[in-house]
Amino acid sequence: MNQHLDSLQSAKILIVEDNESNRLLARTALEHEGYAVCLARDAEEGLALFETETIGCILLDVRLPGIDGFAACERIRAMPHGKDTPVIFLTGMRDVETFDRALRAGGDDFLTKPVRPTELVVRVRAALQLRSVRTELKQHYELLKRQRDDMMRLQLQKERIMAFVVHDLKNPVNSMDLHAQVLLRDRLLPADARESATQIRSEARVLSRMILNLLDLSKADEGKLEPHFTHVDVTALVRGVCAELEVSARRREVTLRTALEVPYVRADAELLRRTVTNLVENAIRHTRQNTVVEIAVVPRESETQVRVRDAGAGVRAEMKERIFEAFVQGDRESSDVSGRGLGLAFCHSVATAHGGRIWVEDADPGSVFCLALPHAE
């Protein structure tokens, strides 16, 4: 094992980068780990070094003066021993097209700038290890590489879709809501049209909440969901939630009931409002018709609990942990409504960001979704 590690660290790394500070940063990081390093300022110099030196791995900038990184990689692959030498592309462009072009040119990995020294060392080490694996188990290597590439492409596509959903859908959804409000201000609007406009407002709010949930789930994944704590009026918040979901509840012939024993909680008002809204909406969708959904806010030792109870079919035992994961649907027995797998995941992220917890309990019948927030110190 030590001999294998020594052979990897003794490999010579060729850095082809026209930016001097980037070259020196990469060189310092790699030499600190015991690697020998060759430097080239452009593709021509790099290709010449590759012909004369025994290179174990190449760090290749995409944008180079003269021959760019993609063309240089293609020429390396055509050289003796060039086919098996790992090539890691360095680029400031983070998009699917650049990633796919790097793969077509023969690249093994893809690092976006600014490059962190620790990540650079890890990627070089991984590339050298993969080269060793490829020599011994080529078919297995190709499978792993393909899976990694697919995951990277999916991640980039997810980021693009997320940006589209958050930035490009908010405006039309808000416009739908505003136009519905304009219609509702018309006192001469027929009753059936008024009902339709009210329904449009309700569904627009659902869409807006989904968009914000996606944004906040993305923030939570990056550790950037930070609550802004204030003293929140519980009665006003719960009444607002019930008013917002009145149309949905009435459509399913569900009665909303409250039991509020705590006047104030310390929380982020907007995040808490959307969390309670998601929990109540989830209860409305999964409860039986002509039943009650109860929203209770009660004190418990060192925490305040928000408890939303429905009279539905309950949650399967094996789903009680997974139900709070993103894009996992509720899978409730006898439910005629499918979930979207975002609302409860958002609730879990908010609970975690507040230093609290969330879970589901069995009721008779139905379920109780419980959000616990710590008391203010």
Give a structural overview.
By secondary structure, this protein is α/β, with parallel strands linked by helices. It contains 12 helices and 12 strands. The chain has a 5-stranded parallel β-sheet, sandwiched between helices. Strands 7-9-10-12-11 form a 5-stranded mixed β-sheet. A two-stranded antiparallel ribbon has the order 6-8. The longest helix is centred in the middle third of the chain and has 47 residues, at 138-184. The two termini are 52 Å apart.
Concise summary:
With 377 residues, the chain is an alpha/beta fold.
Gross morphology = elongated
How many structural domains can be distinguished in the coordinates?
A: 3
Report helical residue fraction.
40-55%
Strand segment tally: 12
- If you consult CATH, what is the topology of the largest domain? Heat Shock Protein 90
Distance between the termini: 52 Å
- Rounded to the nearest angstrom, the radius of gyration is 28 Å
The amount of beta strand, in percent, is 15-25%
Note the run of SSEs as H and E.
HEHEHEHEHEHHHEHHEEHEEHEE
Main sheet specs: 5 strands, parallel
Which regions are unreliable across 5 or more consecutive residues at pLDDT < 50?
A: 1-7, 332-339
Q: Any guess at the CATH architecture of the largest domain? A: 2-Layer Sandwich
Mean pLDDT: 86
CATH class placement of the largest domain:
Alpha Beta
Structural class: alpha/beta
Strands in their spatial order, largest beta sheet: 2-1-3-4-5
CATH superfamily of the largest domain: Histidine kinase-like ATPase, C-terminal domain
Number of helices: 12
